[in-house]
Amino acid sequence: MRTGLINDVVELTSEQFKFKVSENAKNIFRKTIDELDDRQKFQAVAYAVKDVIIDEWIATHRVYDKKDVKTVYYLSMEFLMGRALGNIIINLSCRDEIKKAIKELGLDINVIEDQEPDAALGNGGLGRLAACFLDSLATLGYPAYGCGIRYKYGFFQQKIEDGYQKEVPEDWLRYGNPLEVRRDEYACEVKFGGYTRTFTDENGRSHFTQDGYQSIRAIPYDLPIVGYSNNVVNTLRIWDAEPLVSFNLDEFDKGDYHAAVEQENLAKTITEVLYPNDNHMSGKELRLKQQYFFISASVQTAVKKYMDKHKDIKKLHEKVVFQMNDTHPTLTVAELMRILMDVYMLEWDEAWEVTTKCVAYTNHTIMSEALEKWPIELFSRLLPRCYQIIEEINRRFCISIEEKYPGDRGKVERMAIIYDGQVKMAHLAIAAGFSVNGVARLHTEILKNQELKDFYEMMPEKFNNKTNGITQRRFLLHANPLLAEWVTGKIGDEWITNLSHIKELEVYADDRKCQKEFMNIKYKNKKRLAEYIKKHNGIDVDPRSIFDVQVKRLHEYKRQLLNILHVMYLYNEIKEHPEKEFYPRTFVFGAKAAAGYKIAKLTIKLINSVADVINNDASIEGKLKVVFIEDYKVSNAEIIFAAADVSEQISTASKEASGTGNMKFMLNGALTLGTMDGANVEIVEEVGEENAFIFGLSSDEVINYEQNGGYDPMKIFNEDMDVRKVLMQLINGFYAPDDPERFRDIYNSLLNTKSTDVADRYFILKDFRAYIEAQKAVEEAYKDEKRWAKSAILNVANAGKFSSDRTIEEYVKDIWKLKKVKVEV
Ligand SMILES: *Cc1c(COP(=O)(O)O)cnc(C)c1O
Fold it and tell me: Which CATH superfamily is domain 68-82+118-468+810-816 in?
């Protein structure tokens, strides 16, 4: 098929692969394959797969080098990768040989894949987006690095005990990571604290150096990102921290024992743990250290790599572009300025020109509690030179605002980078970035017309939209093999690398035979999830019931509370009208709450309490089941999406920037029950309103209420007896007989303006009636199997737009300007 020097790679036979695995068993574990336990089998196979990848990895970078390509550095505090092995195998050209070998060795590929811990280096959507982007970049053949942090403990493991969430550290590296490569040769130094010293040289030029600092050694670990059947292997480079010298004897001799220990402690803590906040700023000093740590290391390395081949630092932007995933990596701006001026001796204007051509910013949220602001005191103490640079950027930026809007003090106050004792990272990112993008059309419009209105008016050319996407390789091909095979059987396999082809399924939506095939696959996937639930929750759920699923981070704006209040309402209805026809329904929840987010954690307890009562009430004859899936993460998400009938996307309109869970559900043939928020708007546009269930306030209405101090939920409480009954059950012990006050805070968040500044800030009661009606429409629609099957198939067929391949092509064309590369092995 292919020829070349390293042809044993692509023409790998199953015999060769088997040999690799048995050699690994011997070398690593001193055992034969039969003697290995499951985890060891995973490792023996994973090392063999790594061996297969390595030559392509080297070949890819040889091509990048030779062609002197422009490279995107995707900078992100989070990469929610999930498991690697299964995904790598399906992407490799030699997947069939590997699968054959595994079978011939008497191993079960599913059992082996199940041994791998998730790489949970992220919280939710933002981190998973970064992971999908890496998959798409490699598959499309674009030169790219992901740059991040090698957290020792990823996102915590969630245990449910007595209905409450308990956080358990996730020691994902306990047995090592077979797929990573430590690259000591690229280690570099990152400096914290101290003070800047200024001196003027004989030519009158000012120079700045940092003195009295603490140093950390940043050490990169590379993970392979395998493109689909194209021999491309890109790199996710995650940084670990070590003390510069393991115990600083010099300092010890000088009697500065304390300083030496401190430096060692800083190294130990900096990459210790991922902050578990989603859409929320914690303001912790260590977090800012993490940010500078990985940004300094990544930017230094990128500039060094460029200068190894090129002479003119002023043309950096021709070969390098930094994409900042939210404001977390915004220190890129200051660090690049610092390197250009202090190391490469550029003048301010020259450095600014290069920097502003190299950095681009993606905005992920408009919620004020998520906006990054750092106190000047902390910032300047930790990063004195960067702070000095940002002060100067701010000074010049404020002048440019005044020039454009003479006399308008409000403009300067609203747009300044440093104001009111704080450094505003989004303002820095916008002032310095050549591109500012939102992540769904509605979100970008809200940015332009509301949140970032001043910035948009001053520099409209920077603003653009890139609607998020997901990789169909993981979320259909890998997660739902039955449906993937069915799709390929109907329309061929081009959808795997070009999801727009999936539109060709549309002609089968009305075909009765195809509908039955589709519903049968859905049934099998529901059985697979039912087995998972039986094993993990001990609950029996009927795969013939409607699987109504809400899985995502627990957040008030995502409104899991609306969902569970509706379940409580349904339960009341069934109890009051047992004679009424009711189509059996299984409500599935999965969500982690940030460890310090009280009301979110209480909501988990409420869901589990409601589940306990309902699941154990024999009188309702199993019409309703409620399941809370513990430890929602990428690996069990893959099972959940495939099994869903209904996709709950019910955020308060205007709050969810995009959502990507909504896209995974759609691609797996679930119908969206949602508000006109984030990418739901575009999903409905693609699939047609008749194939989704849309309800609730519009974003304009929500924003309008907010600008006028909210609305009065008491009126609804007083007038709607169904709502009233459900709310009373929060405080009369119905779901908490041992402690009737348990859910008081939830009740108060909806009604009581004394305990919260705004009652029902997320418009749960306001949308409640509309949600009940939409849920009734879901039930009616499901009863008509033909109609449902048609809608479900149409959802799959119209998911083409939501491939991250499409998103990446847009980034490349409008922002990054990269060229595709071909790798022949
Ligand atoms: C896709 C995904 C998310 C994001 O879900 P949303 O519904 O868009 O918030 C979060 N966590 C995991 C594990 C995911 O796979």
Answer: Glycogen Phosphorylase B; (3.40.50.2000)
* Ligand 1 pocket test, candidate residues 80, 480, 629, 665, most atoms within 8 A of CB: 80
Task: Residue count of the chain, please give it.
Answer: 825
Give the pLDDT confidence of 490-534 residue by residue, as tens digits.
999 999 999 999 999 999 999 999 999 999 999 999 999 999 999
Rounded to whole angstroms, the Cα distance separating 611 from 605 reads 10
Ligand 1 pocket list (CB less than 6 A): 124-125, 128, 552-553, 633-634, 637, 659-661, 664
**685-698 residue pLDDT tens:** 999 999 999 999 99
Tokens standing for 804?
């991250």
- Known catalytic residue: 623? no
Question: In the structure encoding, which two tokens stand for residue 223, read together?
Answer: 């993970």
Tell me the β-bridge partners of 362.
325, 437
Token pair 């260590």 is found at: 286
Q: What sections of 540-667 are H helices per DSSP?
A: 560-576, 598-615, 634-643, 661-667
What whole-number distance in Å separates Cα of residue 614 and Cα of residue 608? 10
Angle between helices 512-537 and 481-491 (to 10 degrees): 170
Residue-range domain boundaries for the chain: 1-67+83-117, 68-82+118-468+810-816, 479-702+762-802
Q: Does 552 qualify as catalytic in the annotation?
A: yes
How many CB atoms are closer than 10 A to CB 93?
21
Q: Are 444 and 437 in contact (CB under 8 A)?
A: yes
The active-site residue out of 478, 552, 601, 625 is 552
Task: Note the pLDDT tens digit of each residue in 311-337.
Answer: 999 999 999 999 999 999 999 999 999
- pTM score, two decimals? 0.97
Q: Which atom of ligand 1 is nearest to the CA of 649?
A: 7
Instruction: Report the sign of the C-alpha dihedral through residues 432, 434, 438, 442, in that order.
Output: positive
Rounded to the nearest 10°, the torsion over CA 584, 587, 588, 593 is: -170
Token couple for 221: 């670990």
Q: Choose, from 660, 672, 675, 807, the residue flagged as catalytic.
A: 660
Backbone φ, ψ for residue 439 (5° rounding): -115, 5
Q: Name 359's bridge partners.
A: 322
Question: What spacing in Å lies between the alpha carbon of 615 and ligand 1's midpoint?
Answer: 27
What does residue 347 show for φ and ψ, rounded to 5 degrees? -75, 165
Question: Where are the alpha helices (H) located in 405-440, listed in sequence order?
Answer: 409-415, 425-432
* Buried residues in 340-377 as b, exposed as e (16+ CB within 10 A): bbbeeebeeeebbebbbbbbbbbbbbbbeebbbbbebe
Helix (H, G, I), strand (E, B) or coil at 490: helix
**Local structure of residue 578 (DSSP, 8 states):** T
Q: Do domains 68-82+118-468+810-816 and 479-702+762-802 have the same CATH topology?
A: yes
Per-residue tokens: 226: 């395998």
For ligand 1, atom 10, the nearest C-alpha belongs to 124
**Closest Cα to residue 49, out of 79, 24, 82?**
24
Tokens of 583: 């189509």
| Catalytic-labelled residue, pool 558, 585, 742, 790 | 558
E-only strand ranges, 272-404? 320-325, 359-362, 373-375
Assess whether pLDDT exceeds 60 at residue 1. Answer: no
Look at strands 359-362 and 320-325 and give their pairing.
Answer: parallel
Mean pLDDT of 41-69: 98
767 close to 723: Cβ distance less than 8 angstroms: no
d(CA 466, CA 478): 25
Give backbone dihedrals phi and psi of 434, rounded to 5 degrees, phi first.
Answer: -90, -10
Set 152, 191, 217, 553: catalytic member: 553
Contact 804, 468 (CB under 8 A): yes
- The topology under which CATH files domain 479-702+762-802 is Rossmann fold (3.40.50)
Atom of ligand 1 nearest to the CA of 660: 8
| Model confidence at 256: pLDDT above 90 | no
- The answer to whether the CB of 634 falls within 8 A of the CB of 128 is yes
Decide the pairing of beta strands 373-375 and 214-226: unpaired
